[in-house]
Amino acid sequence: MRYAETTSVPADRSRAEIEKVLARYGADQFLYGWDSDRALVQFRARGRLIRFLIEMPDKGGREFTHTPSKGIRRSPEQAEASWEQATRQRWRALALVIKAKLEAVTSGITEFDAEFLAHIVLPDGQTVGQWILPQVETAYLAGEMPQALPMETAT
After folding, report:
1. How far is 25 from 27, CA to CA, in rounded Å?
2. Residue 74 lies in a domain
3. What integer pLDDT is reported at residue 36 of this predicted model?
4. 89: helix, coil or strand?
5. CA-CA distance, 127 to 125, in Å (whole number)?
6. What counts of helices (H) and strands (E) characterise the chain?
7. Per-residue tens of pLDDT for the chain, all 155 residues
8. How many domains in the chain?
């Protein structure tokens, strides 16, 4: 079972909750946006820009157009309702993740940079996760650590 699988909380209310939580925990910037297949939440807190890019469910996906048990085609209205439910679930899950991370930091369980590491935006616009995950994959495939970056010498 997925968290908030049957939630009735609209996506816009979850986004508003995320914004309110971020403000309560000290964020000084917030934005969100979306396109046909993903949503973005970005904020600045503790001097760091943090970005969550969430893949949204494909409206035309079989899990929405057909019933799960017998594979019977749903009506367009039923398919839309099923897709909206999945979208609400993703937004509720994101709200939970952000709240949990911020509370873990506030409670001293972890540090801000460590908790949000994969989502910190680097100067080139990539997140740390986008930058490092291909290197992690290469290291595992090769069975060895990547070579260190050359250090600049102080002049």
Report:
1. 6
2. yes
3. 85
4. helix
5. 7
6. 5, 3
7. 899 999 999 999 999 999 999 999 999 999 999 998 999 999 999 999 999 999 999 999 999 999 999 999 999 999 999 999 999 999 999 999 999 999 999 999 999 999 999 999 999 999 999 999 998 999 899 998 877 655 555 55
8. 1
The β-bridge relationship of strands 29-34 and 38-45 is antiparallel
- Is the Cβ–Cβ distance between 102 and 43 less than 8 Å? no
In a domain? residue 150: no
Q: What is the dihedral of CA 94, 98, 99, 100, to 10 degrees?
A: 100
Distance in angstroms (rounded) separating the CA atoms of residues 110 and 88: 29
Domain that holds residue 129: 11-142
Report how far residue 48's alpha carbon sits from residue 27's, in angstroms, rounded to the nearest whole number.
Answer: 9
Which helix (H) or strand (E) segment holds residue 58: the answer is: none
154 within some domain: no
d(CA 8, CA 18): 16
Query: Is 45 inside any structural domain?
Result: yes
Query: Hey, what long-range contacts does 81-85 have (CB within 8 A, 24 or more apart)?
Result: 83/57, 83/59, 85/5, 85/6, 85/7
Look up residue 137 and give its amino acid: E
Q: Is the Cβ–Cβ distance between 96 and 105 less than 8 Å?
A: no
Please count the other Cβ atoms lying within 10 Å of the Cβ belonging to residue 144: 9
